Amino acid sequence: MKSPLHSRTGSWEGDFNDYVHAAQAAGRLVVQPRMGMADPAAMRAGLEAVRDSTATTVGTLTLDSYTRVGDEESARNAVRNHLPLNGYPITVLPTDVTADVLTGAGSMPVQVRHGSARPGPIFRAMIANQLDTSEGGPVSYCLPYGRVPLAESVSAWRDATAMLAAASPGRAHLETFGGCMLGQLCPPSMLVAISALEALFFAESGIRSVSLSYAQQTHADQDVGALRALDALADRLLPDDVTRHLVMYTYMGVFPATNQGAGRLLTQSAISAVRGGAGRLIVKTAAEAHRIPTVSENIEALEIAATAAALQHRTQAGEPDGTRSTHWSADADEILDEAQTLVSAVLQGGEDIGTALVRAFRRGILDVPFCLHEDNLGETQGFIDDDGRLRWASTGRLPLARSAPREPFRSDELLEMLNTVAEAADAEAARLGAEPHRTVIVGSGPRGIAVLERLATRLIQQPPEQPQEIVLIDPVEVGCGRIWRTRQSPHLLMNTVAGEVTMFSGPATGDGTPAPGAGPSLGQWWEATGDPDASVNGFAPRALYGRYLRFVVDTVAAHLPAGSRLRRITGRVATVEPIADVGRRLVRLAPGAEELPDRRAGQDAKPVPAPQQFDADYVVLTTGHARPQSPPPWLDVITGTSTRTLPADSVADLPVDQIAPGQTVGTLGLGLSFYDLVAVLTVGRGGRFVRDDDVLTYRPSGREPRIVGGSRSGVPLLARGHNQKPIDFRYQATLFTPERMTALRAEKGRLDLRTDLWPWLLAEMTLVHHETCARVDRRPEAAAAIRRCVQGVDDADEALRRLRELATAAGLPEQDGLDLDRLRAPFRGRQFTDAADFRVALIDLIDADLRQARRGNVGSPLKAALDVMRDTRTAVRAAVDHGGLTARSFTEDLLGWFNPLCAALAAGPPLIRLEELLALIDAGVVDVVGPSATFRPGDGRAELHSAQVGGPGIALDHAVDARIPSPDLATDSSPLTRFLLANGTITPYRHSGSESTGGVHVTTSPFHPVGAGEAVDRQISVLGIPTEFSRWFTQVGSGRPGHWGDFVADADAIAVAALAAGPIREAAPVVLDQHQHQESELLRGGERV
Amino acid sequence: MSAHTETEHNPFDEPFAPGLMTARPDDQGEQPRRRTEPTVVLTTVSSDSHTWNLVYLELLLREWGLTVINLGAAAPDELIERTIEEHQPDGVIVSTVNGHGHLDGERLIRRLRKTAAGRRLPIIIGGKLDTEGGGDATAQRLIRAGYTAVAQDSIQPLRRLVSGIRRSRAIETAAGSMTTAVRPAPGTPQVPA
Q1: Is the pTM for the entire model greater than 0.95?
Q2: Helix (H, G, I), strand (E, B), or coil: what is residue A890?
Q3: Measured between beta carbons, which residues in chain B are less than 8 angstroms from residue A1081?
Q4: Residue among B63, B72, B131 minimizing CB distance to A1080
Q5: For the segment A937-993, what is each residue's pLDDT rounded down to a tens digit?
């Protein structure tokens, strides 16, 4: 049965040219493999793999040699007896089998490739299978390969072409193979002429959709000129109603011996294709020097070529018209001139084009160098001149300027020419390979250092042959970054206990000497410093974490294996852009960058000016929190008053000295930044907390300002439960698991957060809540029964129903304590008469929260349940990352509801902060104005006031936005971000058709940026906060001891990608497959089609 | 037998395949110019459409002083047989690189060895003969089928063939005879003059 999906060129609606033109308009080069398997299942799988690659592709059915020469009997025999064939035997397989094979292509067009001088039976089989796209030509599939007389090939092609055209009027598409004659040493003008003549031949036989081929030769500029000349010639020659595109072939002569050399040639061909205006590229793989490539090798080649093409498109887009990349050149002139002369001479007789071709070869008007076919005169020769261009050595009887007489080539000269391209590519690859492999990490916060640590660990485990250089760059403090810099107020603390923080991907081993992959947690390191405040359960100052981070970097530097080095640079990266023809990235630094001396050079060595730029094999962008430069939305409210505005930023970077004692500072936002601000303005100014009779009181220094905060909910971020869990504790979810979310996604496509995710998370929290209720009620059997009752339940509502039923039946206390929306906004709908009225309610609320927090995250059912929100982040990520939600759910549920809920309930400060807040309120230093708080113009000064609290607002000397801004590319002032956006390397993540978010669009691990035209740059990773929205909850600043978690796994995946990247990637090792082994070839004179 | 010895002892530092394209003949010294130059048929097998190997070998053999009848791509067995009958060459060189040489080449030699013109003619085969890099086993099978020598990794058999042709021509000249060339003696150690 024929698949209704599959109509001729896949289910693509337009014809083949429409497909290529659409891709071209979008800045993409269509790439296509050579691929043919005898086994239909393998053939289908091959098409699927091509279809599913990240490149824009055309699928290929390459036919086997028997079918090519019309030996159907042998092909049939091979199929019947399961003998290996070197291609797909389309003429002897039933149409329902082929229809099934073609379903593998989906909507991707499929081209039949064959190499036959008598293509009639093949075209008949194509028609029967509703395929309408093929290639070849009366000259190009006759002269190079066999013994069929040219006149016979011409008449066979004429009949077959007319048949195909009639079967599929307007849609049938043929590509000329004439631009590939013999693969090498045929000067471009002859290739262009034959390619154009074959296109004319097709048009004369009724074909209205053609492509014209040209194979990469010896010189990039000459190839670009040839493509331009081919286009111009086709424009003159072909009727107006014939549509066309140009197709480039990666070099078809002797191929480089090394993977790197082969990759370089492939990359070059993609770049030349784009420069020359070709819409499609037939790729070649590194393996082809030795054997038929595997599917995965083909896919890799397709993606390398597509990436190189996308980069070239991007480069050209940024150039003024007529620059070197694309302009009409002397090469184009010369080639067009010669090709036009040849074509005119061929067409002079006025007879039909087929007859004219036969006559032209007989008279030597066309004569292909080194072609042994008896209908080819063989009086011409090509050669590679001193500048690397392919030219005529002898023009024989061609109607071209007579070449200077010269001796025929000797065998060794021929050999040298045949190997020129391969040897040059290998030599260039070797030159590049001798440079150190370089990974540049932009931003040395925890994310960057995590990548560094994994790079080092992997380098130690498997020392590479190539020298390695890792360049760590940070604008503020290299080794720890701005947020964790070592010089900042000691009163700014972390929010995670020190024992739960580590930057080593494994625990200390052996004698405990720290090394990459095996080192102490922050808590262990802190205790080892002898600091009396050190405690694994304590909250370390951020500056101390900065010192720990620098210790990690020092450890890495000291342990890198021989041949590897770490360079540390304090400076700002200005640009990162592709060096397309080398396949590296150029990283330019802004002026003034300094390099720290190599550790081994001695501690007292001074920083030296850093290099202005680096060539990088891989760039890791871990730039962390951006510094927003846009004015706060409420600025116009403040403008015109005497109140001063402080920028929204990390508190460590606020100019708090501008706030004088006794002044009033108002903040919007009561989250972690609010607590930071309070700390630096109170204890940071000499105040002290004193505990007396278990009551904490604040002793002011007298230098404090008055601090008034407000927010939408009016609730300061509540405390995390006192930690009662072991440092290496890891909660094992029963209901809300990453596996369940992954399965749901596979089943449903996009999820709805409210109906697909939330019920499971709520059920998991309820499970822990009720279980804890039972446990604190000293009823362990009831606790066990609660967990048991949901085992194996695959409906979240059912799980929730069972939990509630069991809790009611067991008479558990506090059953109704888990009203999350109420916890988040406890003052919603309440009106307070005045500030004092609200203050009483707030103090009650904080007291109640402190009671829960003191019971701990194991002892308080509420705090235990809220901990689940932190412990199941991996499951949330599995559901929502990389476009997991529907557009509506992403915008309304995730951004509008779930994220604020998590921020309010799953990330609290330690409870001591709440105790201190109460003490500060008692002391009259801090106050909270209430819910629904806004700034408003007042009498001279701006005011902070609450719409739910009566009485006057509070007049302010300073206004601060203490809400941590969401990452927003649109307002990010960093020159690097602006540059990457402008040149299309990064684009804002746009969720399935909804509006752009402020995050960088990245792929799945290892998180390559998705640029303009959806081009993926595989030599860059973006990790952490800038990728928020593409991913979920990226503001994680450390790993946890005892298990890797996403933080380390992400860094490790990037380390793997960085080490594998190179000027030209190494092909993955492959297992040879018998079927793909059949036609292994030594010399590739264009024999594979 | 000699051919076997050759395949076994040929050093790999002078690759024949892919050495067809990398070996540099170092022996293009003076060659005896004769009125009737020794002639070889250069061909590939019926399924092989590669020709660069034939283009190169033709140049090389000419430089070695031979007249070369180059049959081009995909020569059918009967064409090769007919050419040998018509031209009575001093030897036949079968060069194939598509990996089917072990099949097509075996069928070809059995056919040629049954003909009068081909029965005792030096016929060597070289290139990439199978898809596995089968080496000795493939070579031995082809030797048993009738080839004089098999060249998979070395150009030596080709040199020996040519020097053998020269020696037999020299003998003929000395004897004033114009009879068919004979197979070179086992273990002939030389390269062309």
Answers
A1: no
A2: helix
A3: 50, 97-99, 128
A4: B131
A5: 888 999 999 999 999 999 999 999 888 778 888 888 899 999 999 988 999 998 876
